[in-house]
Write a structure and sequence with these properties.
The protein contains 15 helices and five strands. It is mainly alpha-helical. It has a three-stranded antiparallel sheet, with no helix packed on it. It has a two-stranded parallel ribbon with strand order 1-2. The longest helix has 27 residues, at 232-258.
């Protein structure tokens, strides 16, 4: 017997209330292993740069041997975000000051001030997921054609994007996303900023903290570049290539998390979020980030238990969760436009096409 037949939007809190008694207490206990994972991947990056320090002594025909390490470093950039993500949701340690310090360290390679992350992700995105007020949603067709909207149109997977734009975008869109939100709150801090999908405000204290944190991040990145002697070879192989790979991996998840879904006025994770089927090894490496619907129901939960949440959703809300193979999710992104014409309809840059969101309630009925 199911809790509900899926006909109307259900608030996130209602799912959490229904499923919480069915989950073990340890699923909500701090998981210190994510802290170990964060520092292991930070160490991988540091070792990679230490090796790269001597690349100018390598023969040219041996430089390809560094490429596998660059790929591993790129994966470490991904894991640093995901482990910091869990940390800042409170599922790793309970000490808020220590979480802030370690979160800052973990987010350095992502150019993301932790105070900004808590505001844009924890506070706004999680409470207003894929609504008009979500900074992470697709742009509306009716929104002004600002530089932010233009860049996203060039970079985001859709039936309009070209290969070059998509390739460049996979490596740089994370930076654009961060830059948009950072400048919106630091320079303006008002809800009328039109180059972001949805502007939001932070307190005066948070605004200063974000600016200070970003300045420190810039200094640390410059220190890394200086350590590598601003050598183009060292920078390309050990800094730009790993960062590009890492940002591309992060953006793959971000694009598939919500961008195929309809907008919702009620925060219903089974409607406005997507979970992916990926190889088991990838789930292990990326801390079950593919279980994104489950995360939106229990954001502060130990991510090791998200598969159990998915099983409970399939039992009590059968056929309701948006669960896709990762390749199918990408294919749907590439076959559809990326601007909202209305809550359940996508359209193109000029607003001529009308495509029902492939994961909307309308398309399923």
């Amino acid at each position: 017997m199911t809790f509900v037949e899926k006909q109307t939007l259900i608030p996130q809190a209602q799912y959490a209330k229904a499923l919480r008694p069915l989950l073990p207490e340890e699923a909500f206990a701090p998981d210190f292993s994510k802290l170990v994972i964060l520092f292991i991947n930070l160490t991988i990056l540091i070792l990679g740069w230490a090796i790269a320090k001597h690349l100018d002594r390598w023969h040219l025909y041996l430089l390809w041997l560094y490429l596998p390490l660059a790929v591993v470093m790129g994966n470490s950039v991904i894991v640093l975000l995901f482990s910091s993500h869990d940390l800042m949701h409170g599922s790793v340690i309970r000490n808020s000051r220590l979480s802030y310090i370690i979160g800052f360290i973990g987010l350095i390679m992502l150019w993301m001030p932790p105070t900004l992350w808590k505001a844009v992700h924890n506070r706004v995105h999680h409470n207003k997921t894929n609504s008009l007020n979500d900074p992470d949603r697709n742009y509306l067709s009716a929104q002004p054609k600002t530089w932010g909207k233009w860049i996203q149109n060039l970079f985001v997977p859709s039936n309009e994007v070209n290969f070059i734009g998509l390739t460049v975008g996979m490596a740089t869109a994370w930076g654009v996303h961060t830059f948009r939100n950072l400048t919106s709150v630091v320079l303006f801090n008002c809800e009328s900023v039109n180059y972001v999908p949805a502007a939001f405000k932070v307190s005066a204290e948070e605004r200063w903290k974000i600016a200070t944190e970003f300045l420190l991040i810039i200094i640390i990145h410059l220190s890394i570049l200086a350590y590598l002697e601003f050598n183009p070879l060292k920078l390309v192989l050990s800094y730009f290539l790993p960062c590009g790979i890492g940002y591309a991996g992060v953006m793959f998840y971000i694009y598939t998390n919500h961008m195929l879904c309809q907008m919702t006025s009620v925060n219903d994770p089974l409607v406005n979020s997507v979970s992916l089927r990926v190889p088991k090894l990838i789930d292990k490496l990326h801390l079950n980030f593919s279980y994104h619907t489950e995360h939106h129901i229990f954001p502060g939960m130990n991510s090791d238990y998200y598969p159990l949440v998915q099983k409970l959703l399939e039992i009590h809300y059968p056929g309701c969760i948006n669960l896709l193979n990762f390749a199918d999710a990408w294919r749907l992104l590439m076959l559809s436009p990326r601007h909202y014409k209305n809550e359940i309809t996508f359209t193109d840059w000029i607003g001529e096409k009308s495509v029902i969101c492939p994961l909307s309630q309308a398309s399923k009925n």
